[in-house]
Model the fold of this input.
Amino acid sequence: MPPALARNRSFRPCYWHRAGGQTLDTIKARGTLDCGVNVGVAGFSLPDSQGVWRGMDADLCRGLAAALFGDPNKVRFVPLTAVQRFTALQSAEIDVLIRQTTLTMTRDTTLGLRMVAVNLYDGHGFMVRKEAGIDDPKGMDGMTICLSPGTTNELVTADWFRTNGLRFTPLLQERMQDNAQALQAGRCDAIGTDATQLAALRSQFTKPGDFIILPQRFSKEPYGPVVRRDDQEWFDVVRWTISALIQAEELGVTSQNTESLKTSQSPDIRRLLGVDPVLGNALKLDPAWATNAIRAIGNYGELFERHLGPKTAIGLERGMNRLWTEGGLMYSWPMR
Done:
């Protein structure tokens, strides 16, 4: 085993060689999708008062289940911390990880896993108390910063402070909710994580107006699903389901108009909605796979606006997550 992999305690050598490429068949035989999500972050994956998982990541799990089975409810949510997430996927406790996970080269090449596609572009930032009077991270010298271990945010924070000759004391806790409580209680002076997650955490604070998210960003944090390397067919299903949601927004296909648009003369719309079954056949799924996913959770724009947009408690503008035709980075690969 290469030394770099030996040092990675979450790595399970050669697991993906042993698995034999049966993930998609196993899911179909089981009749449910086992989807790994965060233990609880508003806007992404958080149980409501009835125990129903809500958020963008939770709905992506449902959309994938709808593509597979025609039923968005055929999904089992498995809450995972940052430390647990990759091991759970490697050991086949889950079929797919959809949990605010940054797609990086070493994760893609050393863990026996495969980063699939980007469903959200983000960047590392800091949240501090408004009364601290800080508008630039360089004023954070000597602060205690709450971070989650095993995340890119832990590394980005350490790198940035070291590069700028500044000091900080990390307070490491697996659950981001514990970091949020620590900041509100004064046990740390700031939280370092991705900006969308900072906004989600602040929306749950007792006094959200007492805290500010600094405007500076220090990293590229593209989020996306992760699967094992043992099943190329399963990789394809996950990747092209994400792409279908983006393509749907590009084409004006929504959760409400899939039926009426089946009479469209647009070849792109007819392929997407399964009137021309070429896409479903390529994935070994029902021709209506994309229709079922879009009907269940909406196109990408609907998904973002429902869980993260300006009218929600999270209150985020789309920014980089706008379509490419609107100056953003969201771009579906040609579905033909």
Q: What stands out?
A: Confidence is low (pLDDT under 50) at residues 1-20. The longest helix spans residues 232-251.
